[in-house]
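Hi there, hope your week has been kind to you so far. Thanks so much in advance, here it is.
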Amino acid sequence: MTEAAFLTATRHSYDALAHHHLYRTGTDTAAKPFDRALLAAFAGYLRQGGSGPVADVGCGPGWLTAELTELGVAAFGIDLSPEMVASARLAYPRLGFVVGSMLELPLPDGGLRGLLASYAIIHVPWQHRPQLFVEFYRALAPGGQLMLAFQVGDDHRHFDNLDGLPISLDFYRQQPDEVAELLREAGFAIRVTATREPEPGLERTRQGYLLAYRS
């Protein structure tokens, strides 16, 4: 089957970005206390429900995979970009990282206790979201926990250059209530829908979050 063009473009773009200074230097949620609190809440729900693997989907260089591990979660990373996965393995050799598409996760039905997709769905065209959320539902065990993070808005932006690097990346902002409804249609129950204003000096747009579980 021929791969969708947006997946190919996203993979090639993040392969190019994997060695860019923005990704080499790394970041975490230390400067974003609300994000850190929500990640801790997600980990708390995971611990309540028992053991099992948790996938950080669209993990990039693995920063949040490592943070989840620090919170006591058995996390591993999945990313579309082989170069990002190579960077994550180098930075966190004790953690597991695999190459894969979140639209076709390399996982058995019900194989996950939890799934984090932090700023990963933003590269998926809006019309593909129902398929994506059905795939998340398939990969999670009954009662499995889901956390999404994304920029809030209605616009679609395309970038073909970053600091002289040729890329082809599309960004699709999301409306939290719309995402929540799509998750319900896929079979999820919603725990938390939240937004916050941009952190000064770090962001330009409002940020959205959803915590849900497979009902």
Q: What stands out?
A: The chain is about 35% helix and 30% strand. Residues 33-48 form the longest helix (16 residues). The mean pLDDT is 93. The chain has one domain: 5-186+210-214.
